[in-house]
Structures are given as structure tokens and as C-alpha cells.
Design a protein that fits this description.
2 domains, 7 helices, transmembrane
């Protein structure tokens, strides 16, 4: 009986310790999950550059959203309704996130194209750099690179190389593709690269007519009569 009593006491103590260990494991797991959720922010809707964690830019995270409008106050910005990773349908209402298409100078035709084709569509944007009022991104729609498409149409030119992003392989590859697209567009004479025909003003036309009329008036009478006979 004494041995049985000690055995039951030992088993009870062991069971309590096991429960304590399990509780500790569960606590650590929940804490880890909380930290992970805080860093990833799967339910967070981003409405300004300052809300996006630095780790998102360091890892070049790809986000999703819908283009609400195009801001042309200074340089064209896509105003995007960002979709959180989880529960995007239950996202809160807030101002759109300003997204800049990295490394392109968009022409007026390009702005019109964005307003016609991109506005109201879902896009993906890969984070590259945080600006004071926007985020610089590689933007794509239906697996099509928007910047490359604009440059190919001659609706945008390639901006100078951004030295702040020179260490990013994803950016250097992206920039090289833009340069190739611009070279092809320039050779084809697409968009802004089209060779304009020489346009004459009314003053130029009158000057030329005056010159021709003066030549005819200055001709000898015999030459004019000869031209009439040949006609």
C-alpha cells in the first residue's frame, strides 16, 4: 500500500508537470504566432507609405489592390485600394495608397492610357522603395508589366538609373527590360519616337509663294512666251 501511495503521488506530480510543459509550449506558440502576425500584418489595409513595415521593402513583397484613380498633380501616381492578405472583402474603408511606377517618365498619352486601361482594374505591385508621399513599385496587371508596356508603346521614356536600388537584382533586371523596350520603340518610331513631318506655317507658305511669284515676274518676256508655247 505504501508503494502504491508513492506511485500515485509520483504519477500525479508527473501529470501536473506535463500539463505545465504543455501550457508553456502553447504559450510560446501563441506568442510566436502573435509576433508573426504583427510583422506580416495579414489583415492590415495600407493607406499610406508609413504604414508599410520596412521588412516588406527589404523582401520586395508583392501586394494587390484596385486602381481607383490616377493622380496627375505632379508625376502620375496610381491611387490603389490595397487588399489585405486575408479577409480582403472585409477590409476597412480608407484613403487609397499612392503607387509610383518606378523608372519611367509617363507622357500625356501615357496618362490617358492609364486612365482608360488601368483605372478600375486589379493590379499587383512589388514594393521597391518608400517615398515621402508614395511607394515606388514594379506594377503589373494580368501578368503584364505596365512600365514595359508603356515604354513599348512610346507612351513613356526610361528615367535615369535609380542608384538607391542598384543592389536589388529584381530592379536591375526590370530596368534592363525597360531599356530594351525603349530601344525597340525608338527604332519603330512608336509614340513619342515618331519622326514628325516638317510643318510649314502660313508665313512660310506666303514667303514661298512670294518667292515663286517674284521669279516668274523677273523672267524675260521671251522666256514666258516660250513656256506658253510649250504648254
Amino acid at each position: 500500500d505504501v508503494d502504491r501511495h508513492w506511485f500515485e503521488k509520483f504519477a500525479s506530480l508527473l501529470e501536473q508537470n506535463i500539463r505545465g510543459v504543455q501550457l508553456g509550449i502553447y504559450t510560446v506558440a501563441f506568442c510566436g504566432l502573435g509576433i508573426a502576425l504583427r510583422s506580416v500584418r495579414p489583415f492590415k489595409k495600407f493607406t499610406s507609405p508609413s504604414q508599410i513595415p520596412n521588412t516588406f521593402f527589404e523582401s520586395n513583397i508583392k501586394l494587390n489592390g484596385k486602381v481607383i484613380s490616377i493622380d496627375v498633380t505632379s508625376k502620375p501616381l496610381l491611387l490603389v485600394d490595397h487588399y489585405p492578405i486575408f479577409c480582403s472583402k472585409l477590409r476597412s474603408v480608407g484613403p487609397p495608397l499612392p503607387v509610383e511606377i518606378e523608372s519611367v517618365n509617363v507622357s500625356q498619352n501615357g496618362v490617358s492610357w492609364l486612365q482608360t486601361i488601368i483605372k478600375g482594374e486589379n493590379i499587383e505591385f512589388t514594393l521597391l522603395k518608400r517615398n515621402p508621399d508614395s511607394v515606388s513599385c514594379i506594377v503589373s496587371m494580368k501578368n503584364r508589366n505596365i512600365a514595359k508596356h508603356l515604354v513599348s508603346l512610346g507612351f513613356a521614356s526610361v528615367a535615369p538609373f535609380n542608384l538607391q536600388l542598384r543592389s536589388l537584382d529584381i530592379f536591375t533586371k526590370y530596368y534592363a527590360e525597360l531599356l530594351k523596350a525603349e530601344e525597340r520603340a525608338e527604332k519603330k518610331g512608336a509614340g513619342m519616337w515618331i519622326t514628325p513631318y516638317k510643318k510649314y506655317s502660313m508665313t512660310d507658305i506666303l514667303r514661298k509663294l512670294q518667292f515663286l511669284f517674284g521669279v516668274i515676274v523677273a523672267m524675260p518676256r521671251s522666256t514666258i512666251q516660250l513656256l506658253k508655247l510649250k504648254a
